[in-house]
Amino acid sequence: MKNKMILLANSLLLLALLLFVSMPYIAAILFRLKTPISGNISLLLSGGTSIITLGGIALLYCRITKRRFTKVMVIKKISIKQVMLVMMLAIGTYIFAVGINSLSMKLFPIAIKDSMAMSSLLNGSSTLLGLFVVILVPAFFEEVFFRGIFLDAYEGINKKMKYFIIIAIFATFHGNVMQIIYVLFLGLILLKVREYTGSLLGSMTLHAANNAISFILSKVALNYMKLVDTGIDNGVIDSAKTAATAEAMNVTLTVALLRASIFFLIGGAVLFIYLRKLKEYKEEKEDLEYIQEENVGSLEYNEGEQCIVSDEKNINANKVKYVPLAIYFVAMTVLVVLRY
User: Fold this and answer.
1) What are 266-303's pLDDT values in tens digits?
2) Which are the contacts of 221, defined by CB distance < 8 A and separation ≥ 6?
3) For residue 152, which of 30, 73, 254, 316 sits 20 to 30 Å off, Cα-Cα?
4) How far apart are CA 175 and CA 214, in angstroms?
């Protein structure tokens, strides 16, 4: 059964990749969109693809496994204290991520191009649509897909291996150098929050808060640039942006490391403190629940979980279940290479 669940999740991952690659082209043909697509249309396509693909596949997974959506995704209420701790973690995550991005742009100059492309997309779209597509859609649909389906399917395997696979899938699915590097770190924090809160609502809250901080600060910076650039010829503005990019690339590695280290120290300290507090809160809550159960004298059983002996008839089952995953990573590598 365990092998079948992993094979199912990995196969659905391939389906998600296929849909993400093909849907923008299908939409462009159906609605006769002019290429290149940018601004609000691009955001709408991105958000719509995420909702249909990630949400649809999550529902399909629940249908195939014949279990309730909330049961598979472990969507349970979290306390106000947990929400506040997660908010503080979002601040630490963003600070630490600034260090990662500043260093990645030095080590991988192509990441600057990704950063400018994302800024241009936000600049050419409405704030309301951006709030929906950049903050709410990823916070819900990416969580139910990556930390919902895969945590459920990979239940029972080695924890380190499980986390490594889920983080790698989550990072590579974003498909560009800058996000892959940053999301490797974000994926670990999201998994830890999901573990310490015992609910997908915890990681959803962190995901939304982190994206909100990034989106709002980016919008503020872009609006400030617009005010400064008012009345200046576009050619001059483009030259200034090119010069700024060149300056960022010409910063020495030592300076880039020193800058990144400051953000790593501050962000790391915040993450360490509040992850520990979140873990301690979980342990205190579990101890309290255990004491209450002892006093009542009742035992709690987890409905819907059964001890099923694995099917060992097929000696290649352990290898077969990872074939779709291997195909996915090869396909993503090819797509990233072609992109650049």
Assistant:
1) 999 999 999 999 999 999 988 777 676 666 554 444 44
2) none
3) 316
4) 19
